[in-house]
Design brief:
binds magnesium ion, 17% strand, single chain, four-stranded antiparallel β-sheet, 2 domains, 352 residues, D-amino Acid Aminotransferase, Chain A, domain 1, binds adenosine-5'-diphosphate, alpha+beta, five-stranded mixed β-sheet
């Protein structure tokens, strides 16, 4: 994978080409002070009930704005105001409203999929800039986009192309995970299709295998093939309940993109790929497209983003969402401590 391929997979590069076939979206340039704020580790955004304000608890005072402590009316709570971006905030709100009030946020390449557990609705659905900040600041995927987008490129000796960072807002759409597929395109040929949410078994996929495979192939050959800037790329598509196929995302053809039910070794070897069907489904293999999906409950695996999560209790504690939980937690700690002290005393008293 070359740096140029990564550049070409930016949302603002492919969106104008395939606008008709994807979810309506708006692109806003990210001001430098917002980028700095997203990369500042010292600030944790707490999404408040008021959607248009951001409040933060900060443990490092490395910027003048953050030192500006404001005491709230409630004597027991001190809040520190976050840096404010009034102009950007109003642009974002305007964009969100024009997309129907609920959006799916991304940067140039990635969505904060590893951070949805932190949002109060456990989803990537956002209504305000503070919702977006909370997800972005908690996401390693977003940090990757901002700090090392060319990490896995083979041409590491060439200078990094300049990147203009952008906030992508996509109209919120209820996508059913069983309708999502990833398509691997090599030399402008569709070589493999994988169920995207491969951790689950979806009976409808095996039932409609032929139709799914055909509709995706048609979508590719009519709308995508030869229209993109590269000949190797990975396409994410959605097949809705009417059987219509939509483009969801474009990704580089290489290790940075999850090969799902394939391996990168297989995909780049140039040898024909096999489907996961029992041998005999020759028709599909002659077409040159291998279609893989999870075929039974047995193969169901934990969700790949699970390792990014911490227990819900810690989230509530750290965001101060549930004060009673904090009190319970401290009581529990105290009684544990007392128990272990008692045990120690008893052990000391116990006869040998
Ligand atoms: N507009 C949207 N509304 C709701 N969910 C979406 C939307 N776009 C994408 N998603 C969901 O988020 C997932 C990740 O989106 P994607 O754009 O591919 O981000 P990434 O490249 O970071 O994986 C998709 O597989 C889909 O389930
Ligand atoms: Mg993607």
């Amino acid at each position: 994978m070359k740096k140029e391929q990564v550049v070409n997979c930016q949302f603002s590069v492919w969106y104008p080409i395939f606008k008709k076939h994807t979810i309506k979206s708006l692109i806003l340039p990210l001001p430098q002070n917002v980028i700095d704020y997203l990369l500042d580790d010292g600030t944790l955004v707490v999404s408040g009930s008021d959607h248009n304000t951001q409040q933060t608890h900060t443990n490092s005072n490395n910027s003048d704005e953050e030192e500006d402590v404001q005491w709230s009316d409630d004597e027991d709570t001190a809040t520190v105001t976050a840096p404010e971006f009034p102009e950007f905030t109003s642009k974002v709100l305007e964009a969100v409203n024009s997309l129907g009030g609920r959006v799916f946020p991304k940067l140039n390449w990635s969505a904060p999929r590893d951070a949805n557990w932190i949002a109060l609705n456990s989803s990537l659905q956002c209504q305000s800039l503070s919702d977006i900040f909370l997800l972005f600041k908690s996401s390693d995927f977003i940090t990757h986009d901002l700090t090392q987008p060319f990490l896995q490129c083979s041409d590491h000796d060439s200078p990094d192309p300049p990147i203009n960072y952008e906030l992508v807002l996509r109209k919120w759409s209820e996508l059913i995970p069983g309708g999502e597929f990833r398509c691997f395109v090599k030399e402008n040929k569709l070589i493999g299709i994988s169920q995207r949410d491969y951790t689950q078994y979806y009976p409808h996929i095996s039932k409609q295998e032929q139709q799914i495979c055909l509709s995706i192939q048609e979508f590719f050959s009519h709308n995508i093939q030869y229209n993109y800037l590269d000949e190797d790329f990975v396409l994410d598509v959605y097949r809705d309940s009417w059987g219509k196929v939509w483009l969801i995302d474009l990704n580089p053809f290489g290790e940075v993109t999850d090969a799902l039910l394939f391996t990168w070794e297989e995909l780049s070897s140039g040898n024909g790929l096999s489907t996961n069907q029992p041998p005999g489904d020759v028709a599909q293999q002659q077409e040159g497209v291998a279609f893989r999906y999870t075929t039974s409950e047995v193969t169901v695996q934990p969700s790949p983003c699970l390792s990014f999560r911490i227990p819900r209790d810690f989230v509530d504690l750290s965001t101060g969402e549930d004060a009673y939980k904090l009190i319970d937690f401290l009581k529990l700690k105290k009684s544990q401590q007392e128990d272990s002290e008692e045990e120690e005393e008893q052990e000391e008293e116990a006869p040998q």
